[in-house]
Design goal:
Distance between the termini: 36 Å
Shape: globular
Number of strands: 12
Number of domains: 1
Low-confidence stretches: none
Number of helices: 10
Mean pLDDT: 97
Largest sheet: 6 strands, parallel
């Protein structure tokens, strides 16, 4: 099977490459190989490579910047999906986000829930979802991180080493996602010849404050940090940002887990694994 992976240098892209099934021929593509704002370039790439499967792991993820750069965000998050779907006759996997929801649900979001994004990023990602065909796979995820990537965990490690104290938002609720397991889930859905919408994040519930506290505790235990600093929970209103965030974006992943029959792993378990990898990177 020949698989074209966009966003190949990103956190998920690297995970997909590392966990690709034996016998898979990979065509990893990033900005150096194809400008995803250029629909003609995308179509030419797909036609030249003629892959059996396309996994679109690329996205414009600068949530706040997107508020002033809507054209680029839409070109990558929606236009590129349309171009890929239009040029590729086989199955496509597209990765989307919890930001397509408005955060007002009283329970975890299931795949069929009505979308109502509250930011340019969320709206453009929702638009991208609409370009998928009936046989394609849509995977929504949230709070993605991995060792060596640009993410909340590594930002917290740096700030905890530099600052005497931190304030972290406590009224945005969801669950982190370790990229290697997200990648394995995507390959699992492909192996099952699945189609439709699925959710994936690690098990459990957290605020960004909860996540930060856990990062410090686990990092101290592994020697990644030398000293603990005070971490204070604060409301979102204390840190106004250009883009609105959903206050509650927990994803119900039961449909995915039931299909793959692979059980649930709590986010703190995967955080510990990631930090051990981070420690090995030096």
């Amino acid at each position: 099977m020949k698989v074209l992976i966009t966003g190949a240098k990103g956190q998920l892209g690297r995970g997909l490459i590392a966990s690709a099934p034996s016998g898979t021929t990979l065509v990893p593509v990033d900005i150096d190989e194809c400008d995803l704002t250029d629909a003609d370039a995308i179509r030419s790439l797909v036609q030249a490579e003629a892959p059996d499967l396309v996994i679109n792991a690329a996205a414009y993820t600068a949530v706040d910047k997107a508020e002033d750069d809507e054209e680029t965000a839409r070109a990558i998050n929606s236009g590129a999906v349309a171009a890929l779907a239009g040029a590729h006759t086989g199955k496509m996997v597209h990765v989307s986000t919890d930001f397509v929801f408005d955060g007002t649900s009283p329970r975890a979001y299931v795949p069929k829930d009505v979308r109502n994004p509250v930011s340019v990023y969320g709206r453009t990602k929702a638009e991208g979802e609409d370009h998928l065909r009936s046989g394609d796979i849509l995977v929504r995820t949230a709070w993605v991180y991995t060792a060596g990537g640009a993410n909340f965990v590594r930002t917290m490690l740096r700030l905890m080493a530099e600052k005497p104290a931190l304030n972290v938002v406590t009224d945005q609720i969801g669950s982190p996602t370790w990229a290697p397991v997200l990648a394995e889930t995507i390959w699992g859905l492909v192996a099952k010849d699945a189609s439709g919408t699925f959710h994936h994040s690690d098990a459990g519930v957290a605020s960004w404050y909860d996540f930060a506290v856990a990062i410090q505790e686990e990092a101290l235990a592994l020697g990644l940090l030398q000293d603990a600093i005070p971490i204070t929970p604060v409301p979102t209103s204390a840190y106004p940002t250009p883009a609105s965030r959903p206050a509650f974006s927990l994803l119900d992943c039961s449909k995915t887990r039931d299909l793959l029959d692979d059980g649930y792993t709590h986010w703190r378990t995967n955080l510990r694994k990631m930090l051990k990898e981070e420690a090995s990177l030096g």
